[in-house]
Write a structure and sequence with these properties.
The chain has 345 residues and is mainly beta. Helices cover 4% and strands 49% of the residues. The strands form eight sheets. It has a five-stranded antiparallel sheet with strand order 1-4-3-2-31. Strands 5-6-7-8 form a four-stranded antiparallel sheet, with no helix packed on it. Strands 11-12-13-14 form a four-stranded antiparallel sheet, with no helix packed on it. The N and C termini lie close together (11 Å). The N terminus is likely disordered.
């Protein structure tokens, strides 16, 4: 950690406070706490990851670029912390970076099929390693040595989650517009083969596991079929609907599910988003945060905090940091476009 702190201080990484003014004390530039990933714009190679310190309410911008001397790449999609490794899926650049906690690159994992590089989307930890969905129709398994193997699932998979030796992959069928897909593939970890599919709402996207329950956000067809939150019982395979209006993103921390609701207007701009809180063990709603977020784009949950990213797709995004009871703790400029995800160090 000392090495990255020294590099960041030497690089004079900009710290952003809640009022977006520079922090004058150099000690305030030293990051700790939470990785903040900005998705960037397609084709612009401008994804980045900073580190936010909840104690000083400051952000060290583009830490990944600083410590590695290179840009994160095109479309930062997902980030997962597992012990001393950080896994970063960069969709457009077709790579999963494996880094240390300081975001220094250890390995670059590139999956191929038929001689073509595959585009990583979402990440999940399973009993055999780290699973990653690839948009070309595969799920991959990254082993401890950094090698990766893939197996076929449904069209254009997005979210992935693991329960009791099975990997569940949401097949969006995004390239099948306007019909999309409506299945979740079930892959056996032992054989690494798809063993069944589960029929769900149109255009399944994000999936999160809590015990034997899997919570699935499906985006619908952006017209007649609305977005929907569903619960899959991994034991029985049955699917039920969770009462929630216009869900657009979900996040899980421990046994609490946070659902960002709001949707989009006629020009596909995010509407003000509210956060609904559910008991993930029972699927019952507990409360709704009192404050809405303009241009709500994404949601993440970590111990003690809920993070709602806001974006107008043109200028730097904002991150709203709530305590778990819905109190606004901070709001800061993420120093990048389209804040995508937050993960704890």
């Amino acid at each position: 950690m000392k090495k990255v702190l020294l590099l960041l201080a030497m690089a004079m990484t900009v710290a952003i406070s809640c009022n977006k003014t520079p922090v004058e004390d150099p000690a305030e530039l030293l990051p700790s706490g939470f990785y903040v990933m900005n998705n960037g714009n397609w084709g612009d190679n401008n994804a980045n990851i900073g580190i936010y310190d909840t104690k000083t309410k400051s952000l060290a911008a583009d830490v990944f670029g600083t410590v590695n001397g290179k840009a994160l790449g095109d479309l930062g999609q997902d980030i997962l912390v597992d012990d001393e490794n950080v896994y970063i899926a960069v969709n457009g650049s077709k790579v999963v970076f494996v880094t240390d906690k300081d975001l220094k690159i250890k390995k670059e994992v590139v999956a191929t099929e038929g001689g073509n590089k595959l585009s990583p989307r979402y990440l999940a930890k399973g009993s055999k390693g780290i699973y990653v969905s690839y948009y070309e129709g595969y799920v991959g398994l990254i082993s401890a040595d950094g090698s990766v193997k893939v197996t076929a699932v449904g069209p254009n998979p997005e979210g992935v989650a693991c329960v009791d030796g099975k990997v569940y992959v949401a097949n969006s069928g995004g390239y099948l517009y306007p019909t999309y897909n409506n299945t979740v593939s079930v892959v056996d970890e032992a054989t690494f083969k798809e063993v069944s599919t589960i029929t769900v709402n149109t255009n399944p996207a994000t999936i999160k596991a809590c015990g034997s329950k899997l919570y699935l956000l499906s985006l619908g067809d952006y017209g007649m079929i609305p977005s929907m939150l569903q619960c899959i019982d991994a034991t029985s395979g049955t699917v039920s609907t969770v009462d929630c209006s216009s869900p657009s993103a979900i996040a899980l921390c421990d046994e609490t599910l946070y659902v960002l609701c709001g949707g989009y207007d006629a020009e596909w701009k995010p509407l003000p988003g509210s956060v609904n809180v559910f008991d993930a063990k029972t699927g019952t709603k507990k409360t709704t945060f009192s404050q809405t977020v303009e241009n709500a784009y994404s949601i993440s949950a970590t111990t003690g905090y809920v993070w709602v990213g806001a974006s107008d797709y043109k200028t730097n995004g904002d991150m709203y940091v709530f305590t778990s009871d819905g109190t606004l703790y901070d709001k800061f400029d993420t120093q990048g476009l389209n804040p995508q995800a937050v993960a704890a160090q």
